[in-house]
């Protein structure tokens, strides 16, 4: 076994096996690209095989470049810290201003939603909100607070959102340009 670093895939593992009769690319559980080659194949040849399969691999294999993963983890940590110092206070600010009562604030990092309100009254806010402009962030908070009085997205619900955020339609539209995932 040997390995080399590739510009697209990060560390690539070369696995040699006496039983291999042809070259095969796969992804190890570590997320690294693995090239299986017949015993005796040099790294030089393995790289040539990789080049000939490069576009195919990019299309077909779910490669997690470890350095990209690390960068993502670091970004998540930074966002979490920013969110902790900001979102619970901002939620409290709007709730106090408009007289809402909620039982707690939870920070989430789900990929699909900006916020939610549980039946027990806890409001969840996505740490990804720290990446969007403040008016959109406030819109999400006001949206979740309005769910305290309305469990659905009825006309009455939107009317209440509109009372606290007159530009909510525009904010809702603009929010679609962002994704909650980190
Ligand atoms: Zn809603």
Low-confidence stretches: none
CATH topology of the largest domain: Zincin-like
Q: Describe the biggest sheet?
A: 4 strands, mixed
User: Mean pLDDT, rounded to whole units?
Assistant: 90
Strand order, largest beta sheet = 1-2-4-3
Strand content: 15-25%
Domain tally: 2
Query: How many separate helices?
Result: 6
The hetero molecules present are: zinc ion
Query: What is the succession of H and E elements?
Result: EEEEHHHEEEHHH
CATH superfamily of the largest domain: Metalloproteases ("zincins"), catalytic domain
The CATH class of the largest domain is identified as: Alpha Beta
Radius of gyration: 24 Å
What global shape is seen?
elongated
Q: How helix-rich are the residues, as a percent range?
A: 40-55%
CATH architecture descriptor name of the largest domain: 2-Layer Sandwich
Structural class: alpha/beta
For the terminal residues, how far apart are their CA atoms? Answer: 35 Å
Give me the count of strands: 7
